[in-house]
Amino acid sequence: MSTSATSPGVSKPATSPATASPSAVHRPYMKTTSYEQVSSVLFSVLGALVIAVIFLGVAWFSTQKPTVREPVMIELVEDPGGSEDGAPDETLRVDAPLPESNDATPAEVETEERQTEQSFESVLELADQAVAQTEAQFDVGVQNTGKPGSASGTGKRPLGRGNGKGGFPREDRWYVRFASLSGADEYARQLDFFGIELGAVINGKLTYISKLSGGAPVVRTVNGGKNETRLYFTWQGGNRKQADVQLFRKAGIDVGNAPLLHFYPKQTEDALAQLEFKYRNRKASEIRRTFFEVNPSKAGYDFEVVRQTYLK
Fold it and tell me: Strand pairing of 162-163 and 231-234?
């Protein structure tokens, strides 16, 4: 019986990779780490947020009203005048067959300028030699300096008040109404917003108060109103007159039964004139009454025309 044995100290050769079993070979491969997974999720969320912000921004801008540039305000110049028992369609100007002229005058207007000519007159009085030379002025012709023309009109008095062409002035035409349900503090803020100054005639002097919505109003007194050129209003009704009395008391002034006045700055007066014209595009000479109302707005407060009546 034969046996085989390995000699001591002799190693057995290892199996070569080429002849190794396929299941025993470890091939290299790529794998996503946890860091890369978290980073990709964060980038995805960030991208979604950016897209959402852009979408919301576009949606917000699409809902905004375009900014309208306000036209340059043009001052509306008026020339009110007429008689309260006149007619709306009448004017004092008279029609004539000649072409219309802005500065027409009667055709026959004598000028005060005179032409002179020199003449010599010899005078002999009881003397053989007495000669006097005199210079005299004579009217040798009258020149017509009138500019023939005509002015359109009927020659009758127009309806209105004043010395102008027709219509009523703003102080007779405008009526302003403040909200009766607003509190005294809000009413004072409305007056300050439009720059309206309150006035009262006390003992022959005109007392003003302003900055009404703060602490104590600012008080100033003048001897008379001869230098006052602002448009002013007086109360014709409503329950806001008592609020003015309270504002004067806040300034430490007891007005009693003194007339109370609202003085409007030129800027506010011009804004009211623009609103009046834009309401129906009617000329001031055609309007009998314009009623304004104060309403809150984004900027603070606004005047609004609520009604108009017309002369014709």
Answer: unpaired
